[in-house]
């Protein structure tokens, strides 16, 4: 494996931070392997996004605005990716570990007869071998897996694992040829965006999560929302809060929910049972606010403040706003 | 209509797990093997479809698993699944995602299906790539993250969750589906179900029954495990009692400031 291909996930040209994290990592990896770094952008808005990607250290950006990519689920995208991979020769393909990314990775790896590593948080190259580090078993073990006997390796990368760094641009943008002769079966009849403009949970730099201690749905918007906004983060929840119907399941962190690794995680009214811990234990810094100083979260939070969240959080939001006003 | 539900048997997700530093293996003592929690939603979705589509519909639970774990599948049978199919073979030990996808697809094809339903993600490996691989190997539509499933005239209509909203997607059968928790809480086995499960059939398949091309198990794997380690220890931090709201807020503010997080 010499070259690195990164799949760019986007909607109508709007993408997420992880795209730039992967573009940056693709460069580093390609340099370590002595190959080229290329991005693939497909579907409506691809050309515009390719222009944005030129600000990142890639060699090549393959683009197609083909509307079929959006009209049919996945199949056209896999065909494009297969063609790009075969054109590039032995390569590592980086895909974000998101709902769509996992679909792409599973399909593409099977198509290419490739090895697959998933939820990867670090990639090491030693003697030309690509080793992928990923937490398994709810983060209780860290494995390193290498590709063997494979021309292609597909890697799903956990958002927030690499730092995006613009610069070193000058990538050549090339139009990808449409793979022909297929009748696509999965038809997208309607496509509704619900959270436009908001950060995805997995890539937010700060996650403020609420649990049973919040007592109902309102505090998620009235108490946690303003703090998340002040910190440039987003709101998550424990399973207890999702099960109670206070927030949608899409906000649930932990077992049967999402796994996040933000630089800062603030847990409010969450006891920190294992089913929550597995989804956030790899956060950079964990701060908790809880009424119970003996809650399990005391064992792994960097700071647990024992007290009334309904008193503390609004004051904290105020302090942060004031500090920002001084700097502004 | 023939529905196959794939399940993975995983170490109990509610148990704290640790790696033995000398053997680099999971300490299994006191850790039960259970149905992967996401897969229970797949079973629930299949049983709901069977209720809707009528008695001509059968639901079979399928697992590729070491033989020692296969009794765990009784829970699926007790929930109302008709029978079980197990692919179990020492030759498959050490299979990675690539081999697992190939072997499972061959087993599903051999059994025959109109619809394969999977959970979205396994709690142990956290890969979520096998359903896509199955669709690819089987050459059928693969629709993921279904919240609502409708079947009419051999056509599938699925409302699926995306990272930023939802979509309605249609596709012909046969197909592979994964479901989200929105399909509904998995049912508890009834006493009648538990009694009945003892009599239900659990058929066994070996790797040789599948006519697979190429090596399987560790020999066929495209990845190999180089290292397995415990995560960096996350020590107990400070626990401070806040006198009141402003005091608590100041504690957190100063802490975040010291860490340069604000």
Quick one: CATH superfamily of chain B?
HUPs
- In terms of structural class, how would the helical and strand content of chain B be classed? alpha/beta
Instruction: Identify the quaternary structure here.
Output: heterodimer
Please tell me the overall pLDDT of chain A.
94
Give the overall shape of chain B: globular
Compile the SSE list and pairings.
The complex is a heterodimer of chains A (328) and B (262).
Chain A: E1 3-8, E2 10-11, E3 14-15, H1 17-33, E4 37-42, H2 46-53, E5 60-64, H3 68-71, H4 75-88, E6 91-96, H5 99-112, E7 115-120, E8 122-126, E9 129-136, E10 141-147, E11 152-157, E12 172-175, E13 187-193, E14 206-210, H6 218-231, E15 234-237, H7 239-243, E16 264-268, H8 274-277, E17 285-290, E18 303-306, H9 309-327
Parallel strand pairs in A: 1-4, 1-6, 4-5, 5-12, 6-11, 7-11, 14-15, 14-16, 16-17, 17-18
Antiparallel strand pairs in A: 2-3, 8-9, 9-10
Helix pairs in contact in A: 4-5, 6-9
Chain B: E1 2-6, E2 9-11, E3 19-20, E4 25-26, E5 33-35, H1 37-53, E6 58-64, H2 74-79, E7 83-87, H3 97-111, E8 115-119, H4 130-138, E9 142-152, E10 155-161, E11 165-172, E12 175-179, H5 191-197, E13 202-205, H6 217-220, E14 223-229, E15 238-241, H7 245-258
Parallel strand pairs in B: 1-6, 1-8, 6-7, 7-13, 8-12, 9-12
Antiparallel strand pairs in B: 2-5, 3-4, 9-10, 10-11
Structure characterization notes:
The complex is a heterodimer of chains A (328) and B (262). Chain A is of the alpha/beta class and 328 residues long. Chain A contains nine helices and 18 strands. Chain A folds into two domains: 3-175, HUPs (Rossmann fold), CATH 3.40.50.620; 201-327, TPP-binding domain (Rossmann fold). In chain A, α6 runs parallel beside α9 (309-327). Chain A is globular and about 60 Å long. With 262 residues, chain B is of the alpha/beta class. Chain B has a single domain (2-220), classed as Rossmann fold (3-Layer(aba) Sandwich), CATH 3.40.50.620. Chain B is 27% helix and 30% strand. Chain B has a nine-stranded mixed beta sheet with strand order 11-10-9-12-8-1-6-7-13, sandwiched between helices. Chain B has a two-stranded antiparallel ribbon with strand order 2-5. Chain B has a two-stranded antiparallel ribbon with strand order 3-4.
